[in-house]
C-alpha cells in the first residue's frame, strides 16, 4: 500500500508531461526510475537524474528529483530540488507567451511533435510542490518553514479558484433555478446537501482537499486555530464524503 501511494504521488507530476527529449517520450524515460522507487530498490538520485537534456524541462526535472529524493529519505536533496523547481517555474512564468524562443518552439512542435514544447507546470502540481516542501520542513521539525510553504500552496489554490469563479457561479445559478422549479417536497438540509455536492464536484476538479487538510494540521501546530478551522472547512467542502 505504501509503495502504491508513493507511486501515485510521483505520478501526479508526470500526467500530461512533455518529453525532455524530442525523440523519446517522457514516460519511457521516467518509468524505470519510478519502478525502482516502487520496488523500494536502492537508487542514486543524483545519478539517475543526471540527464544531458534536463535543461529543456528544468521545472519537471527538479519536481521529479525532489519527490524521488524525499521518498528515499534524502530530505536535504529533496528540499534543494524543490527550490530549484520553484525557480524554474518562476522563470517560465516570467517569459512572454509570444517570445521569439516560444514562437520557434511552437513552430517546431507543429513540424515534429509536442515534445518540442517546454513543459508548463500545472496549478495542481504547484500546490503539491509547496505541500511536499512543507513535508521536508516538518521532517526537520521546522514548523514555521512548513507554515510558509502551506501558505504558498493555499495561494496557488486561491488562484485556481479565481480562474474557475465563473463556472462556480454558473453551477450556483443552476442549482437555484432547479430549486425554484422543483415541486417535490424536500427539507432544507436536503436542498443544501444537493447544492454542496455539485459545488464540491466542481471544486474537486481544480482544488486539493488533502492539501487543505494538511495545511489545517500545520496551522494547528503553529497554534493558529482559526486558520486551521477555515482550511478544514474548505477540505470538507471539496470532499464532503470524507468520513
Strand tally, please?
Answer: 0
Taken from the alpha-carbon principal axes, the silhouette is globular
Rg (C-alpha, Å):
21 Å
Our measurement of the CA-to-CA distance between the termini, rounded to an integer number of angstroms, reads: 20 Å
Number of helices in the DSSP assignment: 12
Brief sketch in words of this structure:
The chain is mainly α. The chain is built from twelve helices and no strands.
Considering the chains and any ligands shown, give keywords for the structure.
12 helices; mainly alpha; 243 residues
Structure description:
There is one protein chain. This protein is mainly α and 243 residues long. 70% of the residues lie in helices and 0% in strands. It contains twelve helices and no strands. It has helices at 2-11, 26-38, 45-48, 58-71, 75-94, 100-111, 123-139, 143-163, 165-181, 188-203, 209-221, 225-238. α8 packs antiparallel against α11 and α11 runs antiparallel to α12 (225-238). The two termini are 20 Å apart. Mean pLDDT is 75; it is low at 13-21.
Secondary-structure map:
Layout lengths: L1 H10 L14 H13 L6 H4 L9 H14 L3 H20 L5 H12 L11 H17 L3 H21 L1 H17 L6 H16 L5 H13 L3 H14 L5
